[in-house]
Amino acid sequence: MRIDCEHVWQHISAYIDGDVDAALRAEIDKHLETCEICSAVLDSTRNVVVLVADDRVFELPAGFSERLHDRLETVLSSEK
Amino acid sequence: MAKAPNPEFEADCIRRILAGEHQLFHELIRPCERAIFFLLLSILHNEADAEDAAQETAIKVFRNLHLFRGDSQFKTWALSIARNEGLGRLRKTDRLREDSLDALTGEDSGDFTPAVLTSWREVPAEALEKQELAGLLREAIDSLPDIYRNAVMLRDIEEMDVCETAAALGITEGAVKVRLHRARALLQRKLAHKLKSFAPRHGLFGWGK
Predict the structure, then answer these.
(1) Burial of B6 (0-12, 13-18, 19+ CB in 10 A)
(2) Which pick of A1, A5, B43, B170 has the fewest CB atoms within 10 Å?
């Protein structure tokens, strides 16, 4: 099986998650060796996934936890 | 990122809370509160509403704790309560769109082809010290269709696994994978060209002007 660029793009997310079988992974790897476009698409997608996972992108509002536990406390201490 | 929950600690905590040690609930819910807030932010698009809904969710989780059967992880169960709270609020304000109902699981509309580049220089996480970059990422995620944003929020931002994400969103694992794939493709497409300017020019510490 020879795969083309579009086929690689369809599997990029699964490839990043290690969720493709060995045969498909080998095909994709072979394609990536010679296709600089797919290599750049893969690298940029993986980079985006790494960046959005950083805690600095989505931070809880200041004081969120304190306010949550204060409100909870009024319920926890009043209910039997 | 919240630490991975410890099922034995949770089970013990739940038994003791139900037996009357209510104060322990603070520790039980603490590792889940970040994910609860960001799922609700993803559904409601507004920090103040998401915070209020997160507080209501925590209270509902406490009041319904006797109904938790341990079939799923506690966090997954708490997140499904958060999701119901969020969708309930959307219904009340009539902002619930068709796609929030997960009615379009098999939808194929939309263009998910990536932005085509010929080379990519990695943008290091250090670049996030620049508020501008974090802002671009938040904006791109916020602009995703709801069903894709919820999936990326739990899977990539809260780093939950496919199975937990599926249970929290009430969809199949296959649907999680499809939505995640599309979300990542849309993000790559929106961001790749903009992110290029944050890539190091001369080695890791040469980035920025």
Answers:
(1) exposed
(2) A1
Instruction: Please tell me whether the overall predicted TM-score, pTM, comes out greater than 0.90 for this model.
Output: no
Cβ proximity of B162 and B155 under 8 Å: yes
CA–CA gap between residue B36 and residue B102 (Å, rounded): 19
Point out the residue among B37, B58, B133 whose CB comes nearest to the CB of A72.
B58
- Take residue B16 and report the two structure tokens written for it: 């003791």
| Distance (Å, whole) CA B103 – CA B121 | 39
Q: What is the pLDDT of residues B16-32, one digit of tens each?
A: 999 999 999 999 999 99
Q: What domains are defined for chain B?
A: 7-96 (1.10.1740.10), 125-204 (1.10.10.10)
Q: How many CB atoms lie within 10 A of CB B82?
A: 28
Sequence-distant (≥ 6) Cβ neighbours of residue B121 within 8 angstroms: B196, B199, B200
Nearest CA in chain A to B136: A57
> Any idea which residue has 């919240």 for tokens?
B2
